[in-house]
Amino acid sequence: MSTSMQLKTQPIDPMSFWKALLYFGLPALLFRISLYNGLPALIQLGMPPFAAYVVSFSVPAAILFALALGFYKRDGYLLNWDDIKTRFRLLPMTGKDWLWAIGGFIVTFLSIGALAGTALMLIKTIPAIAPPDFFPPWSKPGVNFDMALFTNYIGAPLKNNWGVAILFIVLLFFNIVGEELWWRGYILPRQEKTHGRWTWLIHGLLWLFWHVAFYPWQIFALLPICLALPYIAQRRQNTWVALIIHLQNGIVLILILAMVFGAF
After folding, report:
1. Tens digits of residue pLDDT in 18-43
2. Which distant-in-sequence residues (6+ apart) come within 8 Å of 214 by Cβ?
3. Using one digit for the tens of pLDDT, what is the confidence trace for 208-237?
4. What is the pLDDT of residue 4?
5. From the CB of residue 188, how many other CB atoms can be counted at a distance below 10 Å?
6. Among 226, 235, 248, 263, which one is most buried in terms of CB atoms within 10 A?
7. Is the confidence at residue 5, as pLDDT, over 60?
8. CB-based contact 54:60 (threshold 8 Å)
9. Phi/psi at 143 (5° precision)
């Protein structure tokens, strides 16, 4: 048997709850520091707010991406596509996978919209958790989206602004791919070895509290996707399904890219 085949079939090490708490908790601290301390520091150094936000969010997300591949390599797997897709469960999409992905996308998108008002209620109850002024407008509840909103924050017209397009593509890639490789690709299969059928619940709550570290006002709005996405990923045993559902986080980014391309 080839080395590659041996690596593909080697058992995945179980991950205890306490180790998972560390693997979620340290990235939560990293994002919190980067967004709440690094972002305003970059703005004070003269970096435009939009570029500062992209850097402060993309850097920790890129670290998640690197950690996923680094821990994968540490576990003895080869850096080739066959081993990567097997260990991270980046498997071909079946018809049922697509149904779960599309259904999960629709249900979680609608649930986030339905619960969006809870963010404003929480902020009124606990003003200290409101998003800082230096956060981008699309992260603030109750804001009406329009081109002027984005143009003012970015500080330049959006149409044909290819620099903005590139920054958003980088942000979108590391936000979604970095997270999914780390959470659903690397951690979830290891948790399944410990928690079995209830892995999705434990994983989902840990992922929710990772978000709360830097988006505390969204705790109720994000609960459905934080539980549904790992449930579907575990049920389908395919990280692509989770990645497709997670793409709804990129809708605002795609909207801005459409403005750059002059679609409206």
Report:
1. 999 999 999 999 999 999 999 999 99
2. 28, 31, 32, 35, 36
3. 999 999 999 999 999 999 999 999 999 999
4. 38
5. 26
6. 226
7. no
8. no
9. -85, 135
CA distance 204 to 188: 10
Query: What's the angle, vertex CA 108, arms to CA 104 and CA 113, rounded to 5?
Result: 150
Q: What is the Cα–Cα distance from 141 to 121, expressed in whole angstroms?
A: 10
Produce one character per residue of 227-244: b if its CB has 16 or more CB atoms within 10 Å, e if not.
bbbbbbbbebebbbbbbb
Structure token digits, residue 141 = 């509840």
Say how many C-beta atoms besides its own lie within 10 A of residue 102's C-beta.
13
Q: Which residues are CB-neighbours of 238 under 8 A, at least 6 positions away?
A: 89, 90, 91, 93, 97
Res 242: pLDDT: 95
Domain residues of the chain, as ranges? 21-260
Q: Does residue 185 register a pLDDT over 70?
A: yes
> Side chain identity at 264, as an amino acid letter?
F
Measured in whole angstroms, how far is the alpha carbon of residue 108 from the centre of its chain? Answer: 14
For the chain, give the mean pLDDT: 90
| Structure tokens that stand for 15 in this block | 């991950």
Cβ contacts of 201 within 8 Å, gap of 6 or more = 227, 231
Give the global pTM.
0.91
Instruction: Give residue 263's pLDDT.
Output: 59
